[in-house]
Amino acid sequence: xxxxxxxxxxxxxxxxxxxxxxxxxxxxxxxxxxxxxxxxxxxxxxxxxxxxxxxxxxxxxxxxxxxxxxxxxxxxxxxxxxxxxxxxxxxxxxxxxxxxxxxxxxxxxxxxxxxxxxxxxxxxxxxxxxxxxxxxxxxxxxxxxxxxxxxxxxxxxxxxxxxx
Length: 164
Description:
Keywords: Acyltransferase, Transferase. By secondary structure, the chain is α+β, with helices and mostly antiparallel strands. Helix content is about 30%, strand content about 35%.
């Protein structure tokens, strides 16, 4: 099954929303509790367009089965060369190497846009995502114990960073 990594289009938004909402409802990958509404998702999309931040999808047979994006790490001007990224896959396409393709594209785009640093904020229990990022040159730079709360338990957050 060939996978095409391409810029997202408005037609991909329903699939991206489904992927995000599955992660919200069934994992600690996103510390939100409630599914995102189509309106909130549209606002997220418009913000990406307005700020020139990419959203890319993994397209398998014409359907977005995963996506990646990044945005400025923090809003102050001094952080303008640092971005924080996210990559999410639908449940059927996890563990197939597609996340690698999405990450490679995000890294390429960030360098092309003149970014200096990319950050990943990952739930500490998600050891596979932490190992995945380390494989691609991210270094753990901090752990924040019990900063999140979801599913009736406190969650630790790990920050990893890659400098170009």
